[in-house]
Amino acid sequence: MTHTRYAFVKARWHADIVDRALDGFLELIPAEQVDVFDVPGAFEMPLFSRTLAATGRYAAVAAAALYQPSEPMTLM
């Protein structure tokens, strides 16, 4: 029997926080059904995730990153 496969893409920037998102994901999806991919940061995620999705191998591609702007956001 073939199990459904899932991809989880995670940024290495702020890995201590992002790895907790993976932990939560693995509470819902069995680890043996998940392929985990590391990318340097949030910038690389969209293209890498799209490439994985285009393979047709995965039922879903999840991604997690933490973005912390260097300047505080202001509302005008």
Report on the architecture of this protein.
- This protein has 76 residues and is of the alpha/beta class.
- The chain has one domain.
- 32% of the residues lie in helices and 22% in strands.
- Strands 2-1-3 form a three-stranded parallel beta sheet, sandwiched between helices.
- The model has no long low-confidence stretch (mean pLDDT 89).
Going across the biggest sheet, name each strand in turn.
2-1-3
Portion of residues in beta strands equals 15-25%
Query: How many beta-strand runs?
Result: 3
Number of domains: 1
CA radius of gyration is 14 Å
Q: Sheet with the most strands?
A: 3 strands, parallel
List the helices and strands and how they pair.
Layout: E1 6-11, H1 15-28, E2 34-39, H2 45-54, E3 60-64
Parallel strand pairs: 1-2, 1-3
Keywords:
globular; single chain; alpha/beta; 76 residues
Compact summary:
With 76 residues, the chain is α/β, with parallel strands linked by helices.
